[in-house]
Write a structure and sequence with these properties.
The structure is a single chain. The chain is α+β, with helices and mostly antiparallel strands and 374 residues long. It is 26% helix and 25% strand. It has 9 helices and 17 strands. It has a 7-stranded antiparallel beta sheet with strand order 7-6-5-4-10-9-8. Helix 2 runs parallel beside helix 4 and helix 3 crosses helix 6. It is globular and about 75 Å long.
Length: 374
């Protein structure tokens, strides 16, 4: 006897049936981002989703997805809607809509820092364009090994964003950008083998933006060159990110378990003071990138002021939850990063920032292996 018929025969209330559905394996997490305890449903797709993904489902239209709360709207539920959820559910739905997701495609997660554009384009790719359904007719252009188009790039030494012609070429192993489509010589050539790429709308002030990072030339400088670019179209910037990830996969012959690109563990402002007690506090933009803690004057600076290499606690690295120097000016949310070379005195802006920076840095120095984040 099917679960649909069994529960129909029991004549459970709508609320009880929805509670049962939410407890079915696979339905306990969002069908799209895996957030725990989703309390919204797409009644025509037969899935449970979280409130963040629900917003995207509403946005793409009722011809694709019809959403309803499983806690607030129980009086408006029909038995046909209930039966749809019972007969499909998240596990079966994802077997269909995620049958052929490319390794390079970056999916949204339950992390609160997941960018809106990534969440939206993932959901549109799944249900609206059905890019990952087995036997999909159209070839995914971002997996072709070559991509070209206009992106707006921030100037290295200015605040201006100018249109540039970008060309990704797996065969050549690089991403180049030109002044215009008619230019013969590139303004810059970025090696795919050493490149990282991540979405950066949260701090660039531009929707649909991307941060590209490569070692500076000459590499002996030890610095990281950051390049920022954005597109007017969300789908375009996500496809650039996926194309870069796929290109790196091809160039470096990486497998499913290898790192294609990585998000930063944490970014944000901290106040920092120098090694001498007479130095004042200065506001700096910090980026925790694996075992590298870099700081800048501004989030969109092309190069860091300095980089702090973080080792393991057994190598003399530790974090202290206060400014460990009585000669220093009092810091409300201060803490000390101790390294074998010198201590770094830092001050967070808010209590949540203070707690999250302590936790993030401590997690790095307490881990013996390489620290990265997809």
């Amino acid at each position: 006897m099917s679960s649909v018929k069994r529960h129909s025969d029991l004549k459970l209330s709508v609320a009880d049936q929805l509670t049962f559905i939410s407890q079915v394996e696979g339905n306990d997490v969002c069908a799209d981002c895996c957030a725990s305890d989703p309390d919204w449903a797409s009644t025509n797709l037969g899935i449970l989703i979280c409130i963040q993904c629900c917003g995207v489902h509403r946005k793409i239209g009722t011809h694709i997805s019809q959403v309803k709360s499983i806690k607030l709207d129980d009086r408006s539920w029909t038995q046909l809607m209930i039966e749809k959820l019972l007969s499909v559910g998240n596990t079966l739905s994802n077997k269909k809509y995620c049958s052929c997701v490319p390794i390079a495609y970056m999916r949204p997660t339950a992390d609160v820092n997941t960018e809106d554009v990534l969440r939206e384009e993932w959901i549109r790719a799944k249900y609206e364009r059905q890019e990952f359904v087995a036997g999909a007719k159209s070839e995914l252009s971002y997996l072709s090994g070559r991509k070209a188009g206009i992106l707006y790039k921030k100037g290295k030494g200015s605040k201006d964003w100018k249109a540039r012609w970008f060309v990704l070429d797996v065969a050549a192993g690089n991403l180049s950008y030109y002044k215009s489509t008619s230019s013969d010589q590139p303004l810059g050539v970025l090696p795919l083998s050493q490149m990282n790429a991540c979405l950066a709308s949260a701090f660039t002030g531009r929707k649909n933006s991307l941060q590209l990072a490569v070692p500076d030339t000459p590499m002996a400088s030890g610095r990281t060159r950051n390049i920022f670019a954005y597109s007017d179209i969300g789908k375009d910037i996500v496809e650039w990110l996926v194309a870069i990830r796929h290109a790196r996969q091809e160039c470096l012959k990486l497998s499913a378990g290898d790192m294609l690109t990585k998000d930063f563990i944490k970014v944000g402002y901290l106040h920092k003071t120098g090694p001498n007690a007479s130095h004042g506090w200065k506001k700096r933009w910090f980026v925790l990138d694996g075992r590298k803690l870099r700081y800048y004057s501004h989030p969109l600076d092309p190069f860091e002021i300095n980089e702090i290499a973080l080792g393991h606690k057994s190598e003399g690295f530790s974090i202290v939850d206060h400014v460990d120097d009585p000669k220093r000016k009092a810091a409300q949310y201060g803490f000390t990063l101790k390294t074998p070379g010198r201590p770094y005195y830092l001050n967070a802006i808010t209590i949540p920032d203070y707690e999250s920076w302590l936790a993030a840095i401590n997690s790095v120095i307490m881990t013996e292996d390489d620290v990265t984040m997809m």
